[in-house]
Each structure stands twice: as C-alpha cells, then as structure tokens.
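pasting input
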Amino acid sequence: MFDLLEESLKLLIENNKAVLKFDGEVIFDNSNQLKEESKMRLGGKKEVDKLIIDLSRVPYLDSSGVGVVLSLFKFMRNRNGSLSIAEPNEKIKRVFDVTKMTEIIPVYATLEEAMQEA
Amino acid sequence: MNLSLLLLLLIILTALVFWLGVKLFVYKSRFKELNLEREKSSQSLSEHQNRIEELEADIKKKLKKARNVHQRMLPDKLAEPDGYFISDYYQPAEYIGGDYYNVFKIDHGAMDPFFDQYLVYFFDVSGHGIDSTLLSIFVNDSIENYFKLRHNPGEKISTRELMNYIDQRYQKEDFPDDYLVCLFIAVLDRKKNTLSYSSGGFQYPIYKLDQEESLEEINIGGLPISTALGALKDQREEHSVDFDKNNTLMLSTDGLLEQSNGSELYFEKLQKLLKKYKFLPVPFLKDLICSDFYNFTNNSPGEDDITFLLVQRPEGEILNFNLAGEERAAKESKILEFINQNLWSEHKFLETLKNIIDELLENTKLELKIKAFNNQQLLMLSLENINNYESWDSLLNNYPDLTSITEKDLNMTENDRAEISFNREEIYFSHNSSNNRIYLMLIKDNNLS
C-alpha cells in the first residue's frame, strides 16, 4: 500500500516551500490515503508555510480528489500558510474555474511560476 | 581383502544404514509434523476464509439494508406543476450513494392562490458510501428545516439565502474537511414560468432544450459547501432562466456526464442525443438517455451515482382528470372524448388505446389520475395509480406489444449515436421510478424532429 503511495505521492521541500506531486488519478479509491499521507509528511515539517500541489501528472480529479485539495487548503490555513496549484491539465483547470475555487486557491500554469509567486 | 578391513567396512556400512534409518525416521516424523501443521494451517486458512466470506456476506446484507433505507429516503413522487412534466432517474454507484433530489410544492398557506412555486433541488455529496448517504440525509433535512422553521408563507424565497442557511448549518456540525457538497437549488415559479437558482460545486452545466434553437449550456458552477472553505455567506449568487413553452431543462449531477468509456466522456454524447430527440416528452427522453448511457458503458453501472432530472414545459394541450371522487362517469367520457378528438379515427392504435383506458376505468377500485397531453406530433397519457390498489402488471400482460424504449435495442450509427425512429406503428410505454405512474405515447407524425 505504502509502496503504491510512494509512487503516487512525492514531497519536495525547499526552505519554507514544499511541492506535493501527485502521480495518477486522485479519486474516491485513493483520496483518503493520499490526504492522510500528505498531512503526515507535512506534519513533521513545521517550517513549511507555502505548499504547492503539482498536478502535472494527474489526468483526472473527481469530487473526492477536490476534497483532498480542500482539506490540504484548510491544513495550510491552520498553520497560517498558503496553498496553490500548479500545472493542472485543461480539464482540471476547468473544474477550478467553474467552481470558482480559483478565487480561493491560486492556480498556476507552471510549477516555476507557482514557485515564484508562492 | 583383509578381514579386519571388511569388518570395518561392514561396521561403517551398518552405522551408515543406521544413521540413514534414524535420519529417515526423523524426516518422516518431521514430515508428519509438517503435514499436520499444513493441515492445521489449511484448516485455519479455510476457517478464516469462511469467516471473511461470512463477514463479507454480512456487510453486503447490511449495505443492502442501508440501500433500502436510502431508496426509501428518495421521494416516491415528485410534485409536478400543471403544464409541466417532470421525469427523474437515480442509480447509486455501489450499494448506496450520496446523491439526492426532490421537487416539492412550496407551502404559502393562505397566500397559495397568489403563488404557485416549486422547490427543485439536487445534490451530490463526495464519495459513495454510508458516510455520504448520512451526509446527504443531513443536507436534505436542512432544506426541509428551512421551510419548517425559517420560511413564512407568502414570503419571497431566495435560493441564495437558502444556500447560506444550509452552509451555516453544515459548518456548525464540523464535518470532516475532505467532504464536499455540490448543490443546486431552484424555485420554479409557475405563474411567471421562471426558474431562479443558486448553485455550488458542480463542474458540468445544466442544459436547456428549445424546439427552435440549439441546445443551451448553462454553467451553474459556484463554490461547493465544505468545512475546509468555511461558511461562505452570499457567495453563491441567484440567477434566473425563463421557462418558455417547449423548453426542457436537464439537470444532472456529475456521475452521468463525466462517465468515460475510455475514449469519450458521456456528456459529449448526451448533447447530440438531446438535440436529436428534443421533441420527446420527458418520460421517454429519460428512457432514451438511460438506454444510450448503458449502451455507452457496455451495461455496467456508472463509476459514480447517476442522477438526473428532466423538467419540461411542453407546447400543446394538457388536460388533467382525477378519477377519484364523484362524477366518475362524466370524467370518463371526457377522457374518451379527448382521445377521439385528438387521434384521427384511422390511427392503427386508436382502438387499442381506448380499450386500455376502458379496462382501467372499469376497475372502480383503482383511483386514477390522468394527465393527457396532445400536440401536432404526438399524444401522451400519463396514468397515475393514486391508491396503489393494483400494479400495472395485468395491463402489461394484456397488452404485451406495448413498446418500451429501455427494452428496445438501440441501433448505433457510424458516429455511435443512438438511433430510434419513433413511428405510428407502436404504442410507446414508460413508467416512473416508483412504478405508480405509467405513460402511453402515440405518434401522429412519422417525420418527427
């Protein structure tokens, strides 16, 4: 199970910024594990106050996947930090646009841009 | 060879044979032990397997019970305004789901003659397990509570305020932050023929069908309800759409629209289907969508709950007959007169349709509500069994040639589009989800479009 998570979730930390990279669909079947594992890994890194979720390798995000993003948004807000999204595909970008989540969570076309702005 | 050497060899051989014998004995004993252990392990494994199977059966049984509870929670009957037809479909992804919908008449008490309003809503709670079902019960309860506790008869209803109320109530309960509720709430005003709505969380649009123009996509979007976002007062705006004659609205949660067959999402296919069969009354359009969808998924259930509602304000004559109560005979003759007037005498199925109606009307214990619709292209009768006195089985057995779209094989064109030619050679039959209402449709014009 954790081997699978190892492949579908990577956390890179640089000073106070962290990039959480999901690989593969984030759906009902894996959403809870991804959320818990992400929070567990971030839990030990108190210095991180800017989190970027890299979705460049995520083809699809269902409503449970959106739930993971929202849960991490609250997690970061609780430590007075911020969350942003990088490189969502067109379909996922549309979900963020239509549901107006872009008004709350910034979405960037590239990871570089997100790193600069964060 | 020297005797002592021979003796030594014999001793060594004897010792070797003895050692081998002992070793064999030890191995045999060990083998027996291992065999016993293996048998024990196998037995234990089998016992565990049986236990797992028992637990699995128990979970399935409990989930089935939960499914029954959930099904009972869904409305038996949707309120239907005069001049409108409403059709619904719901199929949970697994045993139970997190989708819910309802249509009810808003109570304005003594002010009722001045208002004729209906609340139309549907929502989707993320996930599709018992937890989602419980949350959906909470959301539905919040909507009902608003009308019991907050709304005064005669007061204007703001869907934005209703959204605020549900959101605030949801935040108070402090539900886990990874759940989210996508919700669409609308007030259908039959006097003004408008639909005012507020929405949150849905990524797909609702569709408005018009007989003249092409399909209109209405993006409803908005922020979902979630404890991660906190209470969002007045964030979900109120919009309004006109409900002209010949308009049909298709409202759906994401399950139907985002279903994939590996190369295409269903919403792309659905748009073509809606454009082509916009002339159909909604009970039959619903059947056609279901058939086409399950054809698309190769008869497998969707990956998510499938929920949709079709609301139609058709152009044509609509008459309502309630056969419960007094003056039954007069009402019966009015129905037959309606059929005679609107279906020309040489129509192949005129007599069959009259026979069906006669047969139903002869059963005086059956309290029947009939809604008859007629336009230039077709005639449809909606027959509602009010007192559930009898099922429709005897009718269906007596008239086995009634055509159901859900049982009809869809011909697919090269573009994989559903192809059914509706014609005068059949009586089309449909029923609602709780099976207390059936629809019979006769086509007058073979060139339907």
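fyi The first strand of chain B starts at residue 85 and ends at 91.
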